[in-house]
Each structure stands twice: as structure tokens, then as C-alpha cells.
């Protein structure tokens, strides 16, 4: 029995698409039961629907500044379809402690740096400006601190002469598309055994 996963997105969902594609392998530890976005009309929703995955939008704008009310609606949508694990994939909302606690130990995120280096935004520009030899990506459990949760896996990408934030971002994204499905699959298999 595969673990039921929801993928939360805000945009085009390239990591979400990689997660769906990997879930279709017979030996995958998970199935994507739902793709949810906080943005109505997010490009990734159409991609997920075309891949046969149920989608829903829970627009945060309808809730004004009440972030927890928005998250309670998100949580209800997740539980309505029997989600067991949540994978954030370009979900551009800082979560409240309420949602983090509700899914504690069962919510993963991918971040485009080698955490603990460069939490937050502009990771590629910061790595290049620092003169780092490599960049990469990290899959971690979500905790109340931004990009601070326990690390489940990392992939390293060399920074080469002449790299721009765009060229580095493209190579890191390729690494993300390999790393996230692998780590999520291993995590879900571990849950099933536990």
C-alpha cells in the first residue's frame, strides 16, 4: 500500500511533476493523492490534472490576513482525501505553527541550497556572491523555524566560472527533480515499515 501524499504548490510545479512521475513506478513508496495550490489558476494545477491527479485551489486571498483560517481550510482539504504526508514544492507561504504542528514529522520541503547555508530567498545569488565552490538542494522536515528542520537528503551542484543565478538555478532544479522523489519515496517506505 503506497503512502498518500499531497503536494502543495504556488506556481508551475516542476518539482510536483517530478514527484508525480516518480510515484507511478511500481516500487514507489507513495502516490500523489492531491495537488493543492494557494493560487487559483496556478500553472501546476493543470499539469497535475493532465497527469490524472486530483487538484484543488484554496486561495489565501479569500482569508485576508487570517493565515490560520486559510491553513485550516488547507488542512480540511488534505484530510478529506486521506493524505498521510505533505510535500511542499514551491509553496510560497510561510506556515503558521498551527499547520506545522498538525503535520509534524509528516511534512517535507525542498529548498534550493545546502542547508543550513542560505535559508530563505535568493539562494543562488547568495552562493555565487560568497564565492562558494558548490550549491545544491536540501529536502528537510518542516519545523516552525524557516528552513530549519532535520535534513533528510542533499544533492550538490558545482558552481562553475561564468555561472549566473539563472544558469545555477537550472542545474540545481535538475538535481531537485532527482533528489525529492528519491527522499520522499524512502521517507514514505520508512513510515510504512514503522
UniProtKB/TrEMBL annotation:
<feature type="binding site">
    <location>
        <position position="67"/>
    </location>
    <ligand>
        <name>(6R)-10-formyltetrahydrofolate</name>
    </ligand>
</feature>
<keyword id="KW-0808">Transferase</keyword>
<dbReference type="InterPro" id="IPR004607">
    <property type="entry name" value="GART"/>
</dbReference>
<dbReference type="Pfam" id="PF00551">
    <property type="entry name" value="Formyl_trans_N"/>
</dbReference>
<dbReference type="InterPro" id="IPR036477">
    <property type="entry name" value="Formyl_transf_N_sf"/>
</dbReference>
<dbReference type="GO" id="GO:0004644">
    <property type="term" value="F:phosphoribosylglycinamide formyltransferase activity"/>
</dbReference>
<keyword id="KW-0658">Purine biosynthesis</keyword>
<dbReference type="InterPro" id="IPR002376">
    <property type="entry name" value="Formyl_transf_N"/>
</dbReference>
<feature type="binding site">
    <location>
        <position position="109"/>
    </location>
    <ligand>
        <name>(6R)-10-formyltetrahydrofolate</name>
    </ligand>
</feature>
<dbReference type="GO" id="GO:0006189">
    <property type="term" value="P:'de novo' IMP biosynthetic process"/>
</dbReference>
<dbReference type="InterPro" id="IPR001555">
    <property type="entry name" value="GART_AS"/>
</dbReference>
<feature type="binding site">
    <location>
        <begin position="92"/>
        <end position="95"/>
    </location>
    <ligand>
        <name>(6R)-10-formyltetrahydrofolate</name>
    </ligand>
</feature>
<comment type="function">
    <text>Catalyzes the transfer of a formyl group from 10-formyltetrahydrofolate to 5-phospho-ribosyl-glycinamide (GAR), producing 5-phospho-ribosyl-N-formylglycinamide (FGAR) and tetrahydrofolate.</text>
</comment>
<protein>
    <recommendedName>
        <fullName>Phosphoribosylglycinamide formyltransferase</fullName>
        <ecNumber>2.1.2.2</ecNumber>
    </recommendedName>
</protein>
<feature type="binding site">
    <location>
        <begin position="13"/>
        <end position="15"/>
    </location>
    <ligand>
        <name>N(1)-(5-phospho-beta-D-ribosyl)glycinamide</name>
    </ligand>
</feature>
<keyword id="KW-0436">Ligase</keyword>
<feature type="domain" description="Formyl transferase N-terminal">
    <location>
        <begin position="4"/>
        <end position="184"/>
    </location>
</feature>
<feature type="active site" description="Proton donor">
    <location>
        <position position="111"/>
    </location>
</feature>
<dbReference type="GO" id="GO:0005829">
    <property type="term" value="C:cytosol"/>
</dbReference>
<dbReference type="GO" id="GO:0016874">
    <property type="term" value="F:ligase activity"/>
</dbReference>
<comment type="similarity">
    <text>Belongs to the GART family.</text>
</comment>
<feature type="site" description="Raises pKa of active site His">
    <location>
        <position position="147"/>
    </location>
</feature>
<comment type="pathway">
    <text>Purine metabolism; IMP biosynthesis via de novo pathway; N(2)-formyl-N(1)-(5-phospho-D-ribosyl)glycinamide from N(1)-(5-phospho-D-ribosyl)glycinamide (10-formyl THF route): step 1/1.</text>
</comment>
Amino acid at each position: 500500500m503506497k503512502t498518500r501524499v499531497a503536494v502543495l504548490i504556488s506556481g508551475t510545479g516542476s518539482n510536483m511533476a517530478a514527484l508525480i512521475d516518480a510515484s507511478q513506478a511500481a516500487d514507489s513508496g507513495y502516490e500523489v493523492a492531491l495537488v493543492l495550490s494557494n493560487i487559483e489558476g496556478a500553472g501546476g494545477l493543470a499539469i497535475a490534472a493532465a497527469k490524472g491527479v486530483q487538484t484543488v485551489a484554496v486561495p489565501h486571498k479569500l482569508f485576508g490576513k487570517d493565515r490560520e483560517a486559510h491553513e485550516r481550510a488547507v488542512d480540511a482539504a488534505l484530510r478529506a482525501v486521506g493524505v498521510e504526508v505533505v510535500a511542499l514544492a514551491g509553496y510560497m507561504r510561510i506556515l503558521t505553527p498551527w499547520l506545522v504542528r498538525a503535520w509534524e514529522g509528516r511534512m517535507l520541503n525542498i529548498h534550493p541550497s545546502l542547508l543550513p547555508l542560505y535559508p530563505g530567498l535568493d539562494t543562488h545569488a547568495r552562493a555565487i556572491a560568497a564565492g562558494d565552490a558548490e550549491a545544491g538542494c536540501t529536502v528537510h522536515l518542516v519545523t516552525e523555524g524557516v528552513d530549519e528542520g532535520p535534513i533528510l537528503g542533499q544533492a550538490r551542484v558545482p558552481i562553475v566560472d561564468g555561472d549566473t543565478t539563472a544558469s545555477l538555478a537550472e542545474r540545481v532544479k535538475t538535481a531537485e527533480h532527482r533528489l525529492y522523489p528519491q527522499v520522499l519515496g524512502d521517507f514514505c517506505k520508512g513510515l510504512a515499515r514503522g
